[in-house]
Amino acid sequence: MEITARLQFIRRLAGLAVLGTLAPCSLGDGGGPFGGATAALAETVRLPARAKPVILEQALPRPRPNSAAEPEIGAVLVAQEVELPPGFRELARQSGEPQIPGLTIVYLHPLGVPADARHWRNIIVHQTEGPAGSAKSMALAQSKNPTKRGVTVWVETDGTVYWSTAETVIPTHGDGANRNDNKYLDNAKTYHAVIKTNSIGVEFVGNYPDVARPATREQARAWLLLVRFLQERYDIPAENIYAHNWIDYKDRRYCEGCDLAALARKLAYEPGKRVSGE
């Protein structure tokens, strides 16, 4: 019996020694027999807390603009090209107040003879930070002081065109064609060359308070007729239609006149060439 009791005591000591090598602790620490050792074992095999997933930031696609608020004016309108009416060439060369079917022009000054305005060799497309409804008042102010900062032709958001001055008058517009970085086109032809004395200006109102707001669909449709009217009247080729941003350093927040100028160039209208129906 004594031998047996000794053997049992030795086995217990051996068990305690094994536990001691797994995690140093004092007996009874942690409560209960071998509490400290048991806690140490539990800490040894405890699984790490689940790592939080890493969420990568992604650039979300920009939502498409509301077509009613920001209508597209590019390829769709070119595909649905506004047809020129019969007798367009003759209408475009008339004196007085010629009216083109499908285009409303309010003349604050009647037109003369196209030959007297041969200095117009280019068309510059502008966009002014004026609210909708401001084209008429701006055109009226221009008519009272024709050579002040402004343009000859103003276009309202509903497509109404206001011809503000005599076609022989040269309003102050553009900035001397100071762009020479070839960002939009080869500026070798335009640098200090496409200027107010040889370029008729057309101003589209309505990009206020958001300067990046494009022209309205009504403005674009009016433009498809108006630009060819100007080309035919003054014999201006399509490659001489410029956005203001193409020839001058302008507001970096948007490209002034770029969509409209590109739209006009896509028409590839040739002055003097007879159109269908003539």
Question: Mind explaining what this structure looks like?
Answer:
The protein has 278 residues and is of the alpha/beta class. It folds into 2 domains: 2-37; 75-267, 3-Layer(aba) Sandwich (Lysozyme-like). The protein is 30% helix and 9% strand. The protein has 8 helices and 6 strands; from the N terminus they run ααααββαβββαβαα. The chain has helices at residues 2-22, 35-45, 75-79, 88-92, 135-144, 217-234, 244-247, 258-267, and strands at 105-107, 122-127, 153-155, 161-163, 199-204, 241-243. Strands 1-4-3-5-2-6 form a 6-stranded mixed beta sheet, with helices on both faces. α6 packs across α8 (258-267). The radius of gyration is 39 Å and the shape is elongated. The protein starts with a helix and ends in an 11-residue tail after the last helix. Mean pLDDT is 80; it is low at 16-71.
Write a compact overview of the structure shown.
With 278 residues, the chain is of the alpha/beta class. It has helices at 2-22, 35-45, 75-79, 88-92, 135-144, 217-234, 244-247, 258-267, and strands spanning 105-107, 122-127, 153-155, 161-163, 199-204, 241-243.
